[in-house]
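Quick start: read one record
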Amino acid sequence: MAGHKMPYFHNTAGYPSIEIGTKKFMCIGAKPPFDHPHEYLEMGDETEIVCPYCSTLYKYVPEVAHNESTPIGCLWEEESVA
């Protein structure tokens, strides 16, 4: 998934909710290899959405950059294998 334009978020730490700055994103649950099927989520006119696989509550906060999260560290970027 390296170089994907849509942000991918994970909740490996088990936070009750994650604030993000986008309404269209992918939830992967936890970091691989413990991830669930990568679920495309779109909030539409709403400001919150729950992932149907892992039950993470995502909250849209426009002050957060589209590729960041609060708490920090929930954006998933595939690590390159050397």
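Strands lie at 8-9, 17-20, 24-27, 39-42, 48-50, 57-60, 69-70.
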